[in-house]
Amino acid sequence: PASGELPPIDPTVLDGAVIGFAQVGSESGWRSANTDDIKRAAEANKVDLQFTSAEGDQAKQIASIKTYITQGVDVIAFSPVVETGWDSVLQEAKAADIPVILTDRAVDSDPSLYKTFIGSDFVAEGEKAANWAKKEFADASSVNVVVLEGTTGSAPANDRATGWKNVLGSDTKFKTLASQTGDFTRDGGKKVMEGFLAANPDIQLVYAHNDDMALGAIEAIEAAGKVPGKDIKIVSIDGVKAGMEALAAGKINYIVECSPLLGNQLFQAASAVLKGDTIPTRIVTVESEFDQAQAQAALPDRQY
Ligand code: GZL
Ligand code: ZN
């Protein structure tokens, strides 16, 4: 789907508008930066933002959306923790004539149930990570890989796995020894990597679905007396401050950026929807990718 452009914010429309946002949780540095940016943009546009965090629990996220429906907010926005299970609450919002905007993660529901989905192309992110690995290990005869998966059932976990397989799935040189969810958290990444190291003495590459799990893996690799970025290479996704610092320090080898700064686009979409303008059903965020030298150069200007 086309990435599309959104019209500029109409301040008169947003000033005092009640917008309910149901956030995933606070699992990672990316999530914190995403929350901060949404609150910043709401403040800047005088939006009356109602904000909840589901702490990774879909039932809580659904309950929060139902509360917004009862409250009769002007717009509902959320980042769905997992892809499935949203049809009925989205139908309730439609029946209540409350427009819904998805940010960050997608749902597998009928697209007529929400106005737009603003977020990254996670399949492309997985493909970028795999293309780096293909080049990095061009001279290797075999590469043992372990994968730290994101939250089970979430669009980023599903699609980052798909993108990786699109590029390397048929490349028999790359052997996936193990693949397990670390739930996008630093502690999850550390614990799962400890298990991987105990069971597999010869790992060459970690594919982490986000920086927080990569940072946990670094702790486990160092505790095992190995050198992250050298003995075991790491490719990750996000580009949060701590990840970029590890990349610049050589403990991570490559990071594919996934921007959490969705606040302005969220309120551009809300402004257009409240004016009755039609907007593209899919807005793809623009993002980059970094090797170690590029991270060193970019660090001073990073916003998160
Ligand atoms: C991606 C976002 C993911 C990040 C993780 O857009 O949904 O969730 O990659 C975050 O860091 O926890
Ligand atoms: Zn899907």
Report on this structure.
The relative contact order is 0.17. The protein has helices at residues 11-14, 29-44, 58-71, 87-95, 122-136, 155-168, 186-199, 211-223, 241-248, 263-275, 292-298, and strands at 18-23, 48-53, 75-78, 100-103, 116-119, 143-149, 174-181, 205-208, 233-238, 254-257, 282-284, 289-290. The chain starts with 10 loop residues before the first helix and ends in a 6-residue tail after the last helix. The chain is 42% helix and 19% strand. By secondary structure, it is an alpha/beta fold. The strands form two sheets. It has a six-stranded parallel beta sheet, sandwiched between helices. A six-stranded mixed beta sheet has the order 7-6-8-9-10-12, sandwiched between helices. The chain binds beta-D-galactofuranose and zinc ion. Zinc ion binds at residues 83, 108, 155, 158. Residues 83, 108, 155, 158 line the site of zinc ion (ZN). Residues 19-277 form the Periplasmic binding protein domain.
Q: What is the count of DSSP helices, taking H or I runs of 4+ residues?
A: 11
Low-pLDDT regions? none
One letter per element, helices H and strands E, the order comes to HEHEHEHEEHEHEHEHEHEHEEH
Number of strands: 12
Subcellular location: Cell envelope
Protein name: ABC transporter substrate-binding protein
GO molecular function: carbohydrate binding
Family: Belongs to the bacterial solute-binding protein 2 family.
Please outline what is shown here.
By secondary structure, the protein is α/β, with parallel strands linked by helices. Helix content is 42%, strand content 19%.
